[in-house]
Amino acid sequence: MEQFKSGFVTLIGRTNVGKSTLLNLLVGEKIAAIANKVQTTRTAIKGIVNRKNSQIIFIDTPGIHKPKTKLNETMIETSLTSLKESDLILFLIEATSNGIGKGDKIILEKIKEAKRKTILIINKIDLVKKETLLNLIDIYSKEYNFEAVIPISATNEKYKQTILDEIEKNLLPGPAYYDIEEYTDQTLRNLAEETIREKALRLLQDEVPHGIYVEVEKMKERKNKQGQIIYDIEATIYCLRNSHKGIIIGKNGEMLKRIGRLARLDLEQNFGVKVNLKTWVKVKEDWQENEKIVNKFKSK
């Protein structure tokens, strides 16, 4: 009988390379915020994949970027700490890269320091010619002894089994750390905050999103007259400036309504119950330098 395997797998890469998209694909559930903006992921979110002979625990880390605030520093610290604590690393790069860029070089050096087994995932292969891809594989293979190199498109389901099989092959025998029904260690409150923030990221102008964070103030379960379970969720979107507050709320409150409506639909699908969501917007100018708030994003 085949031995059961388990392990912690860190997903690392530059900002906007497609880590959260890949995590959601591999886990089969939407647990990480996806938006085509930098700094979408702020914390190390765990996704759990239960297979017949293994349990794979993924850690999606914030993208590596140049830190400008205490929040940025914390995010990068979270990413690099995860490397040392993992059993295996998935290093995600873009197929469109011309050689090893500055950001990827930093990550590669950290992987070498961590001395962990690493699988190189080359994303967005639909955007390049075969020769470009082969050249990139050659360049990276000379830099590090990867367990495997897998070219993919993170939005395409067909690559899922290939990656999971390769990961399982590289794990050691071990126990199931989480219940087999679980697919994330995020609490419902975390998931609600992530979902609302993702919708804001998708809908707002460039300068606003990264100056926001979401806090669920109240989350209560109740039954309506028909006996259906409803979650009452009250959340506040904090932003850095009054001008941002106006943009988030929008004309006649339209933007805030759109954010709330999209978040509610996602949450109902994720939770499998009706959701009554109320959102407010408040200004908190210095939150990115506020130790208490920033500590929330530290690696647990």
Can you describe what's shown?
The protein has two domains: 5-173, Rossmann fold; 188-297, GMP Synthetase, Chain A, domain 3 (2-Layer Sandwich). Helix 3 (102-114) links the parallel strand 4 and strand 5. It is globular, with a radius of gyration of 20 Å. The chain has helices at residues 19-27, 70-85, 102-114, 130-143, 160-169, 188-203, 242-249, 254-271, 291-294, and strands at 5-13, 45-50, 54-60, 88-94, 117-123, 148-151, 172-173, 213-223, 229-239, 274-283. Residues 32-43 and 64-71 have low confidence and may be disordered. With 300 residues, it is α/β, with parallel strands linked by helices. Strands 1, 2, 3, 4, 5, 6 and 7 form a seven-stranded mixed sheet that branches.
Helices and strands, with pairings:
Elements: E1 5-13, H1 19-27, E2 45-50, E3 54-60, H2 70-85, E4 88-94, H3 102-114, E5 117-123, H4 130-143, E6 148-151, H5 160-169, E7 172-173, H6 188-203, E8 213-223, E9 229-239, H7 242-249, H8 254-271, E10 274-283, H9 291-294
Parallel strand pairs: 1-3, 1-4, 4-5, 5-6, 9-10
Antiparallel strand pairs: 1-7, 2-3, 8-9
What features would you highlight for this structure?
single chain; alpha/beta; Rossmann fold; GMP Synthetase, Chain A, domain 3; 2 domains; seven-stranded mixed β-sheet; 36% helix
Molecular shape: globular
**What is the distance, rounded to the nearest whole angstrom, between the alpha carbons of the first and last residues?**
35 Å
Low-confidence runs: 32-43, 64-71
Radius of gyration, Cα only, in angstroms? Answer: 20 Å
Number of domain modules: 2
Q: Main β-sheet: number of strands, strand sense, barrel status?
A: 7 strands, mixed
What would you say the CATH architecture of the largest domain is? 3-Layer(aba) Sandwich
CATH level-1 class of the largest domain: Alpha Beta
CATH superfamily of the largest domain: P-loop containing nucleotide triphosphate hydrolases
| DSSP strand count | 10
Q: Which fold name fills CATH's third level, the topology of the largest domain?
A: Rossmann fold
Strand content: 15-25%
Supply the number of helical segments.
Answer: 9
Classify the secondary structure makeup into a structural class: alpha/beta
- Helix % is 25-40%
- What is the arithmetic mean of pLDDT? 80
